[in-house]
## 1
Amino acid sequence: MSKMYGGPGGMGFNKLKFDDGAKPNITKAMLARIASYFIPYWKQTIIVLLILLVSSGLGLLPPIFIQHIVDDALPNKDMGLLVELVLISLAATVASGLIGVLQSYLNSYISQNIVYDMKNQMYRHLQQMPLQFYSNVKQGEVITRMTSDIAGIQGVFSSTVVNFSSNLFILATTLGTLFFMNWKLAILGMLVVPLFIMPTRKMGRVRWNIAKQTQEKMSDQNHIIQETLSISGYLLMKLFTKEQKEFDGFTTVNAESTRLQIRESMAGRWFMMVLSTFTTIGPMLIYLYGGYLFIQGEITIGAIISFVALLGRIYGPVGQLTNLYVDINRSVALFERIFDYFDMEPVIVNKPKALPVNISRQDIVFEDVGFAYHRDKPALQHISFTAVAGTMTALVGPSGAGKTTITNLLPRLYERSSGSIRIGSTDIYDMTLESLRSQIGLVTQDSYLFNGTIRENLMYANDGASEEEMENACKAAYIHDFIMGLPDGYDTVVGNRGMKLSGGEKQRISIARVLLKNPAIIVMDEATSSLDTVSEYYIQKAMSVLLQDKTSIVIAHRLSTIMAADHILVVQDGTIVEEGKHDELLELGGVYKDLHAKQFERKSFTESP
Ligand SMILES: Nc1ncnc2c1ncn2[C@@H]1O[C@H](COP(=O)(O)OP(=O)(O)OP(=O)(O)O)[C@@H](O)[C@H]1O
């Protein structure tokens, strides 16, 4: 039942049940799992159930007293009894209203706390998901799951659970009373009940289908919003002038979901109309047969009136209970969609006996490592090399060769399929993920800065760092003077993804951030974008400080970096085809020489001043 999102030998992404339109599969295990969320609130749940039971009992009093009013108080002109009966009925109504307030509070307490628990569980779970999950999942789907699906759960308790119990209690107590009063009339009143059930089931099915389609359209809408109204999507849309096309797409989905919502509410209206017609048939039958029994002298007028009033308490709950089929399906479907997410195993986890390890000044050894994103298409094969402690190892090779993939295996963003990766003598699988990742600094090409101040972005690496340490890191990354030149200095807000800064500035800030983290190992993907010579000069200087005395693996795009490397690995088609120093590799006259001729001798890749 669990879904794998990766692991040795492949990274299959299973499509979620959400999209396949299947009706939820209501099993005992599923119900038990849903019930487990209510367990922490069992005390409140019992109080709610007790309140519902008492309310249903209190609700019986006014219709029962009608009989005494009509049969005893009125014919005997007994004003005292009349007032007494009316007051008791009134008191019962007020009491039931008052405990109803307590019940509403408890409803919302239980529902909101279950939502709170599930949201936390979901967030924690999504944090554990591997990178592959986020490359595969539709944009917007995670947000839909976190917000509308989990928020929908709050309605489950107040509508489904409370509705079900309260209708059941009302039905049971009222039916008992009716049969106790007169079983013949009770059976007659029940004759119309099957008439409710048929249309209710039919409408239930129709509404369920519409609800499902609405949910899908809402998810599509979220997807479009996420795709086109995020920074990168927005730029893509603007630069390819696709505003109208995107708008048309959005309008279509929007129109579709609006139409569905109208259909859903209208389906309910027709349904109510049909039901209300049937509810008038029952009392007619009672008047007819009850009238006959009265003429025969078998029952009183009060009994007939009381009976009709009680019958009114039957039809509502019967209708709602049959309709509950839709609610239950919808609720279980919500839980199912959420459980689908919970069941995806976070495949990259600590091994049971993993230990925190200090990895300073140790060699990194890849031995016959293989990896595949897709089971039948290996991305890496037989990767073996040693990155010697305190030295820089450069990875070079054509685009798509597998360089990024190699670097992603080290901090276990992806899991190797075969072979071993060791730091010193310890396999990275035997280290805790926390100790491994806390000692690796990753500088990616597209340095991600979140929308906050420069200070917040820097301190993210080490919130215990002092102001002085932060400034020293920025000085070492040659970005301090630039930051001080900004009107708000370190308190400057960088904008979404650091949009308000240039590529070179962003990369230097992210180098400062890694310096502040001060890890033993640096993994760097050098930016390919051509920077102006001054910017590039400063980045080179920042890099040399960053990599000093560190064990580093750098995906190198600049000749100056390659020349500075202690060891160069040439990657092609997922394997290492050559390795050595720059001069040795040139002399070899193979792939590296070609690459060098094509890539590094171009003017834009010349060394910085
Ligand atoms: N998340 C992914 N899912 C499936 N395939 C992937 C994924 N990431 C990369 N690949 C594929 O794996 C191969 C190696 O990609 P990788 O990014 O490691 O190459 P690279 O050498 O770093 O290229 P570049 O220099 O262009 O960044 C490519 O064929 C790529 O299409």
Note: Confidence is low (pLDDT under 50) at residues 1-21, 603-609.
## 2
Amino acid sequence: MNLLIYKTLEELNQDLADYVIKIAEMAIEENDRFNFVLTGGNSPKALYNFLATECKDRIDWEKVYFFFGDERNVPADDANYNGLMAKKALFEGLGTAEDHIFYIDTNLAPEKAAIEYKKALDKHFEGSDIVFDLILLGMGDDAHTASIFPHTSLVKDEEATVAAVFVEKLNTYRISLTAPLINKAENIAFLVFGEGKAEALKHVIGDEQKDVDTYPSQLIDPIDGKLTWFVDEAATKLLEN
Ligand SMILES: O=C1O[C@H](COP(=O)(O)O)[C@@H](O)[C@H](O)[C@H]1O
């Protein structure tokens, strides 16, 4: 595990963008495509804007396929739909073709949406193992990642798949990649900043004894890939040296 700490969010996003571009270049060089899983929420908006503007000419974006680590069970035109956030912040700027974006279809019932998403992934990876080049993850202040929330069935899901989960504290369904599927990736990067994440980060990174039910982000531990944390100083303020 590699922990990178930045003074400002601007520095963090610039470095994370360089990292995305570097992995994209390697994947395109090797396989002529880059399979990139996006995180949702608010944290990645500035990064996505930066990629869509400052990094627009740095790689051949037509070789990039975009996926989502999780989705909220809301219509595609709802401001909380992760796909809409990415569309506005990233895809519109890059002019990404629709057939390179793998949205999670929330017109379907959550379980069906999860099944259909897994089918779409299997098709894209042509029946072989689903191994993403890069998965970008966020972490909530309750230590959830993707939509693997504390004390939910997804924490214990041992199948490398896509699943629907009812999150009681939000009184809603989510659709999410499971931790075993995430952990197959070549590269996983967490984007975490702000004081509000400090308590969760202290436990997720700092605790010797794991408690994945309470801190699901502790589940993220790539099998063969690399894990890098991009965090700001505020988020690390409770970490012991
Ligand atoms: O609900 C969600 O939250 C997490 C964390 O979001 P953040 O804005 O606090 O970083 C996010 O990773 C996930 O994709 C999203 O659906």
Note: The first strand starts at residue 2 and ends at 6.
